[in-house]
């Protein structure tokens, strides 16, 4: 049974989502703040986390940072903060999806299923190479989901793992934004590329010496992105 962590200071929201999620045979673990959420993660194997932003003691942004220091689980932000800057910040910190409150519990359920399905597809994909992909100083251990640059390990999120797997498995191949979005998020692409741009930018910050002048993760203007390395 998949375990879902819901962190929200409104107990009514946890209880409402629990009703819908338990009907689909998920186990729900509730936490009222960030510190409680970290305790739950420490004591349980959690498959996905749903996190509110505005909470006492430790806000959702700080919680996401701490989760990304140790865990690769999918993270869905569910927040009343609806400005595009709030969404971008959440994604930059490592969230995989962002839902604006008030939201329909059925939408939350659908997003949870989508994130878990993507994880399962990548874990069970028979074509996924069980090897180390080396491009320049980057060494990507696809079986253990570990990335190194030289001798330094780089922490990556589940979405960054999927993005790297797609691009590094096909070096020099240009992928359009539509191809990337539909492959990684498994949803139709309607032209809003903010999500892709945020994840690309965050990944560049991790693998490039100068993210404004990338030598690995290249933008092909008018087309999309590719990974290559030229000395």
From TrEMBL:
Summarize which parts of the chain are annotated to bind DNA, as ranges. 130-229
Alphabetical list of InterPro entries matching this protein: CheY-like_superfamily, OmpR/PhoB-type_DNA-bd, Sig_transdc_resp-reg_C-effctor, Sig_transdc_resp-reg_receiver, WalR-like, WH-like_DNA-bd_sf
Per the record, the domain of life is Bacteria
Signal peptide: which range, if any? none
Task: Please give the biological process terms from Gene Ontology that the record holds.
Answer: regulation of DNA-templated transcription
Instruction: List the PROSITE patterns.
Output: OMPR_PHOB, RESPONSE_REGULATORY
Boundaries of each OmpR/PhoB-type domain copy? 130-229
Provide a Gene Ontology MF annotation, just one. Answer: phosphorelay response regulator activity
Xref: PANTHER family: REGULATOR OF RPOS (PTHR48111), RESPONSE REGULATOR SAER (PTHR48111:SF2)
> What this chain does, per the record?
May play the central regulatory role in sporulation. It may be an element of the effector pathway responsible for the activation of sporulation genes in response to nutritional stress. Spo0A may act in concert with spo0H (a sigma factor) to control the expression of some genes that are critical to the sporulation process.
Q: What is this protein called?
A: Stage 0 sporulation protein A homolog
């Amino acid at each position: 049974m998949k375990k879902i962590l819901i962190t929200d200071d409104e107990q009514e929201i946890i209880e409402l989502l629990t009703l819908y999620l338990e009907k689909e045979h998920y186990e729900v673990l509730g936490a009222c703040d960030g510190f409680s959420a970290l305790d739950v993660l420490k004591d349980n194997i959690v498959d996905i986390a749903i996190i509110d932003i505005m909470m006492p003691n430790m806000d959702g942004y700080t919680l996401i940072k701490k989760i990304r220091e140790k865990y690769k689980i999918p993270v869905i932000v569910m927040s009343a903060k609806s400005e595009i800057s709030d969404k971008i910040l959440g994604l930059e910190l490592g969230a995989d999806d962002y839902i604006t409150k008030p939201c329909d519990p059925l939408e939350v359920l659908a997003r949870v299923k989508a994130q878990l399905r993507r994880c399962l597809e990548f874990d069970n994909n028979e074509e996924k190479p069980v090897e180390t992909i080396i491009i320049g100083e980057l060494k990507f251990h696809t079986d253990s989901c570990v990335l190194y640059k030289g001798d330094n390990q780089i922490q990556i999120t589940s979405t960054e793992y999927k993005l790297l797997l797609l691009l590094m498995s096909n070096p020099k191949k240009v992928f359009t934004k539509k191809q990337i979005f539909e492959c990684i998020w498994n949803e139709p692409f309607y032209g809003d590329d903010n999500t892709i741009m945020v994840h690309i930018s965050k990944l560049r910050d991790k693998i490039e010496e100068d993210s404004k002048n990338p030598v690995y993760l290249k933008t092909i203007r008018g087309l999309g992105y590719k990974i290559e390395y030229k000395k």
